[in-house]
Design brief:
Elements lengths: L2 H8 L8 H10 L3 H12 L4 H12 L2 E2 H8 L3 H13 L3 E6 L2 E6 L2 H15 L3
Antiparallel strand pairs: 1-3, 2-3
Helix pairs in contact: 5-6
Length: 124
Amino acid sequence: MNDKEKDLEMQCGCEHEHPEVVREVRAAMPDENVTADLSDFFKVFGDSSRMRILFALDRRELCVCDLSAALGMTKSAVSHQLRFLRANHLVASRRSGKNIFYSLADEHVRDIIEIAVEHLSEED
């Protein structure tokens, strides 16, 4: 099937709207501020370095040195990404003496990652 055939297949064959369906969908839609916040939230996941850090932290709590070694990144690059992830409430930190250990902020972050991986692993 070529692209033109795929486009035609995706088009609706009806010539009119279904007002009751449109009302139902509009009533269920979140506020535009919420959708903008969601869009910004998912942009955080749009960087492979940040995703690798999140995967590592999904495995266990780690310090910057261990993250750097595990991911083959500089400490500076890891620290930069951790600041970004903390600012977006995806990563938490804990101080133990001179060391700071990082972990996923909560189970929701773990769930988002696991559901996304599961979705991408599905066969069509």
